[in-house]
Amino acid sequence: DRHVNYGSGSGLQDRVAFVQNDPSQYDASIRLADLQVSDTGTYQCRVKKNTVAVHEVIVTVQEKPATPQCWIEGDLTEGSSVLLRCYSR
């Protein structure tokens, strides 16, 4: 039908568009801009001509980790032991 159904309350309206101007020309690919963790979900392509064909794709958006904080604990002299610590939220 040459349109995207965004689902209720998804926040996708301003971030989804067809890659080609006219999806009826056999390419109904979409581009999702500014990915967010909340975009994780099942996306469905539904093509209608004489019959209906449906394909689903599961998309998992992972959050970028924070920059780790790293430090050394212990005596930095030859023969001693040190503990290398690293932590990230």
UniProtKB/TrEMBL annotation:
SUPFAM superfamilies cross-referenced by the UniProt entry: Immunoglobulin
Pfam families named among the record's database cross-references: V-set (PF07686)
Coiled coil feature spans: none
The Immunoglobulin V-set domain, residue ranges: 11-52
Origin species: Casuarius casuarius
Superkingdom assignment: Eukaryota
UniProt protein name: VSIG8 protein
Residue ranges crossing the lipid bilayer per the database entry: none
